[in-house]
Automatic annotation (TrEMBL):
Keywords: Centromere, Chromosome, Nucleus. It is found in: Chromosome, Centromere; Nucleus. One of its GO terms (cellular component) is nucleus. This is Centromere protein O. Belongs to the CENP-O/MCM21 family. Pfam families: CENP-O.
Length: 351
């Protein structure tokens, strides 16, 4: 073996030994570093979990406080306000009006009747008026008229009290009150006090209608209140009968925006309803999207190459929700979804 070959073999051995020493020194350190990093990451994950749990707890608390605040603001006037109005206008039966008799002349007559009243007369006559028919009160007591779910009564000083009775599915719900009065320098009526929920467009209705027609204002406000109660109770009824299928539910205070996430079989269904008309109990816009939980849960007949499963709009259900109340529209969602599954149009084939 020549000297050159010996030298090359020696150099290779030296390089191999040096590499072994480097690996022996660095590998444990590297593994230790990796272990520390893994532990740090695990600690960060635990920290993130704690933070997320804390956030969820805070959100739950905020939701509770939000519900309490909404209830407080919605019914801020309380029963005391209602009782005071009832003590002023009396609790006698009201004249029944038909649609032909319902006009601004009735309001003018009630104003005149109110101007002739005095607080002392009203207080003295209150006990008797509870037992009398309005037709027997002569010219001394307050009188009331009723048309539909509205009771309109005269009050002292030419004020007008309107009680709005709301209902859904034949069941009575809240009664709301609104008092109209004239300013000293004007004969025009304005809303002086009320128990209307703060999130409903009372001022917009007043501005648009009261200056031109008092009866138009009363009818419009009645429609707004009735539509609000109907939308709210539709959601409550759906919760009652389909609570197991509702995974998420969001609604605005006035229920003019409702969003639902539903589960049916292996499918999720997102429903978004918008009520642009505050006097309507039916949505003006509706979007219904359906998508499966997973691709593996879906039948594939005949077999095909599948790239993905797309979210599919349930157009028939969307149309039905614009024509039907929400609990009945839900059945249309299920029917449209079943038809979509049967037709298998949710697959996207590889090109």
């Amino acid at each position: 073996m020549t000297e050159v070959k010996r030298r090359k073999i020696g150099e290779r051995r030296t390089s191999a030994q040096r590499l072994k020493r480097v690996l022996a020194e660095t590998t444990p350190k590297h593994l230790e570093q990796l272990t520390k990093q893994a532990r740090a990451l695990a600690g960060e994950d635990e920290c993130e979990k704690v933070c997320l749990n804390d956030i969820h707890a805070r959100l739950s608390g905020l939701k509770v406080r939000h519900e309490l605040l909404r209830a407080t603001l919605t019914f801020a006037k309380g029963n005391g306000f209602h009782e005071r109005l009832l003590s002023e206008v009396g609790q006698a039966a009201a004249y029944e009006l038909d649609s032909d008799s319902w006009n601004d002349d009735i309001i003018a007559a009630l104003q005149e009747r109110g101007r002739g009243l005095s607080l002392s007369q009203q207080s003295d006559d209150f006990a008797d008026s509870c037992l009398q028919d309005p037709s027997d009160m002569g010219d001394e007591g307050a009188i009331s008229y009723q048309i539909g779910g509205k009771v309109i009564s005269s009050m002292t000083g030419g004020r007008i009290c309107i009680r709005f009775d709301t209902s859904y599915a034949g069941q009575h719900f809240e009664s709301y009150f609104c008092v109209l009065a004239c300013k000293a320098s004007s004969e025009r009526l304005h809303v002086s006090e009320h128990s209307i929920p703060f999130f409903l467009p009372l001022r917009e209705v007043e501005k648009s209608n009261l200056s031109s027609s008092c009866t138009k204002f009363i009818d419009c406000l009645s429609d707004v209140l009735q539509a609000y109660v109907s939308r709210r109770e539709q959601v409550n009824q759906l919760r009652l009968i389909k609570g197991d299928q509702i995974r998420e539910l969001y609604h605005s205070l006035s229920y003019n925006l409702i969003e639902l996430l539903l589960e049916e079989a292996y499918w999720k269904v997102g429903v978004s309803l918008a009520y642009d008309n505050p006097k309507s109990e039916l949505p003006t816009r509706s979007v219904v999207m359906a998508w499966p939980h997973s691709v593996d849960a879906l039948p594939r007949e005949p077999p095909m190459a599948v790239q993905s499963v797309t979210a599919h709009r349930l157009l028939r259900a969307e149309g039905a929700l614009r024509d039907l109340l929400l609990p009945m529209g839900y059945e249309k969602i299920v029917a449209d979804l079943q038809e979509t599954i049967a037709r298998g149009i949710y697959w996207e084939e590889d090109q």
